[in-house]
Amino acid sequence: MQNVIDTNPGQKALRQTPLRRGLSKAVLRRRCDALWAMMSPCRLCPHDCAVDRMDGQRGICGLDDRCAVAWIGPHFGEEPPITGRRGAGTVFFAGCNLRCPFCQNIQISRPARIRPQWYRSVEELASEYLRLQEMGCHNIEWVTPTHVLPAAVEALILADEQGLVLPVVYNSGGYDSVEALEQLDGIVDLYLPDFKYGPAAQVQRLRAPADYWERASAALAEMARQVGPLQMDADGVAVTGVLVRHLVLPGDLADTPGVLRSVRAAMGEDLSLSLMAQYRPPRPGLSAPMDRVLDSAEYREALWQAQAIPLRQGYFQSLDSRDELVPDFDRSVPFGDQALGETAGPQAAAESE
Predict the structure, then answer these.
(1) Which residue, among 198, 231, 229, has the nearest Cα to 214 in the 3D structure?
(2) Spatial CA neighbour of 184 closest among 48, 35, 340, 290
(3) Could you tell me the residue ranges of all domains in the chain?
(4) Would you tell me which CATH number, out of the four given (3.20.20.70, 3.40.220.10, 3.40.50.920, 3.30.70.1230), belongs to the domain 2-328?
(5) Which residues pair with 71 in a beta bridge?
(6) Under DSSP, is residue 137 helix (H, G, I), strand (E, B) or coil?
(7) Nearest to 240 by CA among 7, 20, 19
(8) What does DSSP assign to residue 192?
(9) Alpha helices by DSSP H, 118-211
(10) What is the C-alpha to C-alpha distance for residues 351 and 332, in angstroms, rounded to an integer?
């Protein structure tokens, strides 16, 4: 369940066409070619793996040059301006450039979980974008797209030629390369980054890159430069801007106060924030305090800190969100009966750490 704190409901966006409509086909082609070039050697994310993914080598994300999609369909569990009334057109890409031990999408994010039947050609992905539009979705939401950006953008160009008019939402773990993000300027309409860790986060325990905070801060600044504050149409559906997410972890492992200071510094008075309470241990055997759910006192403290910033617009969750919003990708519909999407394969293989 999402609740809203709207401290500045005034400005509504009048623009109804996606940003990329203002770019020529030649510019779009150059941007896409530049992203493909960043795979050989790979520098699509701050890991700078330097492997040649175009030659079949796999990066930390677990993928070569191919694009793997675990699930596609309307999703109704995002923040209200992303979901709207008809759902976000969500594309869950498989693989990830992070190794969060608490990952709620662990069934699809680890290299060992990627199934052969999840691979999509650019043409197939473009068709899926168009199908989401036909189903009435408000947007095309790329979930964990950092490592597959070339294919995601290539498919977007192809779908645009066939009549796609939906805005694009970029939903990542925050560990993004500014160099790659620059190629998305004018292509992505909405940024929905998870800003996971502050400068005092226990990164070793969380298996996070040591430079996560610095890289995420730089990425957020670039996102804000491109699209500015969150803006919505007359129906309350977001059409452009940045909405920052942060998952509060038990025992403040993520340094929530540091996160709040960081995102406020990047966005200023225009900060729109979603403070999430849905943490649930994804598997047994995690060390304390990751072996337990968030308690109400911890979330109340985080919420008080967020409201004290203050926010332009804020979203918060009830603690039962952990039961409502955590997906199960072993089901044909990961989020219960709320969406009519499709899976691309049977139950995933066992986890391989």
Answers:
(1) 198
(2) 35
(3) 2-328
(4) 3.20.20.70
(5) 92, 343
(6) coil
(7) 19
(8) -
(9) 122-134, 149-161, 178-182
(10) 20
Q: Kindly report the three-state secondary structure assignment for every residue of 171-191.
A: ECCCCCCHHHHHCCCCCCCEE
344: amino acid identity, one letter: A
Q: CB atoms < 10 A from the CB of 105, how many?
A: 22
What is the value of pTM for the model shown? 0.90
Q: How far is it, in rounded angstroms, from Cα 36 to Cα 180?
A: 10
Triad 1, 307, 294: Cα angle to 5°: 50
Point out which residues pair with 238 in neighbouring strands.
232
- Exposure string for 21-38, b = 16+ CB within 10 A, e = fewer: eebeeeebeebbeebbeb
Mean pLDDT in order along the chain per 10 residues (353 residues): 47 63 95 97 96 95 94 93 96 94 87 86 98 97 97 98 97 98 98 98 95 98 97 94 97 97 94 94 89 94 93 87 71 62 30 34
